[in-house]
Specification:
alpha/beta; Rossmann fold; six-stranded parallel beta sheet; disordered N terminus; 3 domains
Length: 578
C-alpha cells in the first residue's frame, strides 16, 4: 500500500455508513438495475423482507403462491426481457422448492440470481429447524452457488453472482445467506459491480484461423444447412445472423429455444428441427454436405439416433461454450466465441449465393407436409377442434406480435410448430428439462418483464394443474395474462406414445379436471369454455379484448396426434408424417 492509497481509503471509510447485511443486499440489487423480485417469505429470510419494507417504492416484490412458481416467473421475466431474474426464498423447503426451476434454468441457459435465507451460522450442520444443505443440493443445477455467513461478504458476492449469471453462457446462480449475516452491520460506502473474475473466462478467445476454415467449407458447399439455437438470442445476434444467411443464401432451421431469432415467414426459415419438427429440415439434415450449427447443443431431441445423424456432412459448430463442442456430434471446424462477434467475421468471408435447387428441396418437402399434416391440423373442415387451429386463429389475431408461453406436451409442440413469431423472445417454453407447470408462472414473469406486450400462456390440462395456485398471484397483482387451456382430457404426449408404441394401453393418462372457468372466477379472473368451431374465433377475440387476465378453456380432440414425429431410437430421416 503506498502513501497515495491511504487518503482514498480514509475517504471511503469516512463516507461509509453502517447498514445491515439485508440492506446492503437490497442496495446492491438496485445498483444492478433490478426492478422486480419474485419471492415467498419465511423465517430464515425474514431480515431481508423486513429491510424490503423500506424499498417498496424502488423494488417491486411479487408474492407468488409457491417457490417453484416464483422461480419459473423469474425465468419468464429473464427470457422475455433479457435481464437477470431475481428470486427470494426461505431455507429448508423454501430452498428445495427452487430446485426444479434451477435445473430448468441451467439446461436452458437462463440468467437468474436466487437468494435463499439460511439458519444462523452457529446452527449449520445441527439439523436445525428448516435447515437443509442447499449448497450441495443445488451445486449440480447452478452455474455457481455460495453460502454467505458474514455480512461483509454480501456486496462482493452479490456482484460476482450477477456477473456470472449474465456473462458468457448465462445460467442460474444461488446465494444462501445465513440469518446472522442478514442482521449484522457492515460499513457500506456503495456497491461496485463485478466486471472480471480472474479464474473465470465467460467467452473463449476467437480463433481467426477457425473462422477462415469455416468460411472455406461454406463456400465449397453445394447443399449447406444452418441449424440455429438459443445462442443467437442470448447473444443478441439476430441481425448479424440474418445478414449471414441472407448473404450466403443458406436455408436455416431452428431449435425450439431459438424460435423467433429469424421471423417465421422469412424465405430462408425452413422450420423447426427435432422429434416433432418440420419434415424438410429433418430429412435433409441427412443429405446436406455442410452443416453449420450456431448456438445450439445437438441434444437428443434434435439429432435422433446419433450414429445415423448427418454422417455425410462436414460439421461447423459456433458456440460460446467449448464444452458443447464434440460433446454429441463430432465437429470438423469449431468456432469458439460469442456469436454476435463470430457471425460477422464469418459473413465477411462467405460468398454471396442463392442455392436455388437446394432450397427447392425444402419447398418440396414442405408441400408434402402441408398435404399430409398441416392442412388438417390448421384448417379442419369437420370434426372436433384441433390444437393447431387454435394457434392459427391466435396468430391471425395477434399478428405474430404476442409473447407465447407454452408448457410441456402436445400443445407445446403445436405452439412451437405453428406459432407465428415476428421477433425474438416471443416464444418462451421449458426446453431441455421439459417441466410441466412452467407456463402459468413463466407467463406472469414475462408480463412483468415486458408489460407492453400481450402475453398468452398456452397450457395443457395436465400442466396447468401443477401450478394453478399462481392464479392467486395474478389476482393479487392485477397482472394481465391471457390463459388458453387446450383440454383433451389426457396427458396427451404420453397418451400418444402409448397409442403408437404400447398398443393403445392407456396406463394412467386419463386425467380429470375441475371446472377451470369456475376456478378462475374464484380468483376473480374472467373466462369461458368453448367446444364448437363456430365459437372459437369470438372467444379468442373476447379474451384478447378483455382488460385484464382471462382464461379460455378450449375442448379439443381427445386423441389427436402430433406429426411429423421422429420415433425414439430412429434417424431424423425416418421421420413419420403419419
Amino acid at each position: 500500500m503506498n502513501s497515495q492509497t491511504l487518503p482514498v481509503l480514509d475517504t471511503l471509510i469516512a463516507e461509509a455508513r453502517e447498514v445491515s447485511g439485508a440492506e446492503a443486499l437490497l442496495q446492491g440489487l438496485l445498483a444492478e438495475g433490478v426492478d422486480t423480485i419474485f419471492g415467498y417469505p419465511g423465517g430464515a429470510i425474514l431480515p431481508i423482507y423486513d429491510a424490503l419494507y423500506d424499498f417498496k417504492e424502488q423494488l417491486n416484490h411479487v408474492l407468488v403462491r409457491h417457490e417453484q412458481g416464483g422461480i419459473h416467473a423469474g425465468q419468464g421475466y429473464a427470457r422475455a426481457s433479457g435481464k437477470v431474474g431475481v428470486v427470494f426464498a426461505t431455507s429448508g423447503p423454501g430452498a428445495t422448492n427452487l430446485v426444479t426451476g434451477l435445473a430448468d434454468a441451467q439446461i436452458d441457459s437462463t440468467p437468474l440470481v436466487c437468494i435463499t435465507g439460511q439458519v444462523f451460522a452457529h446452527l449449520l450442520g445441527s439439523d436445525a429447524f428448516q435447515e437443509t444443505d442447499v449448497i450441495n443440493i443445488t451445486a449440480p443445477v447452478t452455474k455457481w452457488n455460495y453460502q454467505v455467513t458474514e455480512a461483509r461478504e454480501i456486496p462482493g458476492i452479490l456482484a460476482k453472482a450477477f456477473y456470472i449469471a449474465r456473462s458468457g453462457r448465462p445460467g442460474p446462480v444461488l446465494i444462501d445467506i445465513t440469518k446472522n449475516a442478514q442482521l449484522e452491520k457492515l460499513p457500506f460506502a456503495g456497491y461496485a459491480p463485478c466486471t472480471r473474475i480472474r479464474s473465470y473466462r465467460p467467452a473463449p478467445v476467437v480463433r481467426p484461423a477457425a473462422v477462415v476454415q469455416a468460411a472455406d467449407l461454406i463456400n465449397q458447399a453445394q447443399r449447406p444447412l444452418v441449424l440455429w439455437g438459443q445462442g443467437v438470442v442470448l447473444g443478441g445476434a439476430e441481425r448479424e445472423f440474418q445478414a449471414f444467411i441472407e448473404k450466403s443464401g443458406i436455408p436455416a432451421a431452428w431449435t425450439i429455444l431459438g424460435a423467433g431469432a429469424l421471423a417465421s415467414d422469412h424465405p430462408l426459415n425452413v422450420g423447426m428441427l427435432g422429434m416433432h419438427g418440420n419434415y424438410g429440415p429433418n430429412v435433409l439434415t441427412n443429405e446436406c454436405d455442410v452443416l453449420i450449427a450456431i448456438g445450439m447443443r445437438f441434444d437428443d431431441r434434435v439429432t435422433g439416433r446419433l450414429d445415423k445423424y448427418a454422417k455425410q456432412a462436414r460439421i461447423i459448430h459456433l458456440d460460446i461454450d467449448p464444452t458443447e463442442i464434440d460433446k454429441n456430434v463430432a465437429t470438423t471446424v469449431a468456432v469458439w466465441g460469442d456469436c454476435k462477434q463470430t457471425i460477422p467475421l464469418l459473413t465477411r468471408l462467405v460468398a454471396e449465393r442463392q442455392h436455388p435447387a437446394w432450397r427447392q428441396r425444402f419447398a418440396d418437402c414442405h408441400a408434402q407436409e402441408v398435404d399430409a399434416v398441416i392442412k388438417d391440423a390448421l384448417f379442419p373442415a369437420t370434426g372436433e377442434l384441433t390444437m393447431g387451429e387454435v394457434i392459427q386463429q391466435l396468430n391471425e389475431l395477434t399478428h405474430g406480435e404476442a409473447i407465447l408461453v407454452s408448457d410441456v406436451g402436445q400443445h407445446q409442440m403445436v405452439t412451437c410448430r405453428y406459432g407465428r413469431l415476428n421477433g425474438s423472445r416471443l416464444h418462451i417454453t421449458s426446453g431441455g428439462l421439459g417441466t410441466m407447470g412452467f407456463a402459468l408462472p413463466a407467463a406472469i414473469g414475462a408480463k412483468f418483464g415486458v408489460p407492453e406486450r400481450t402475453v398468452v400462456a398456452i397450457i395443457g390440462d395436465g400442466g396447468v394443474q401443477m401450478t394453478i395456485q399462481e392464479l392467486g398471484t395474478i389476482m393479487q397483482t392485477g397482472i394481465d395474462v391471457k390463459i388458453i387451456i387446450l383440454n383433451n382430457q389426457f396427458l396427451g404426449m404420453v397418451r400418444q406414445w402409448q397409442e403408437l408404441f404400447s398398443d393403445r394401453r392407456y396406463s394412467f393418462v386419463n386425467i380429470q379436471s375441475p371446472d377451470y372457468v369456475a376456478v378462475a372466477k374464484g380468483y376473480r379472473i374472467e373466462g369461458q369454455r368453448v367446444a364448437e368451431r363456430a365459437d372459437l374465433r369470438p372467444a379468442l377475440e373476447a379474451m384478447l379484448a378483455h382488460p385484464g387476465s382471462y382464461m379460455l378453456e378450449v375442448m379439443v380432440a381427445q386423441e389427436q396426434n402430433i406429426f411429423p414425429m421422429v420415433p425414439q431410437g430412429c434417424s431424423v430421416s425416418e421421420i413419420r408424417l403419419r
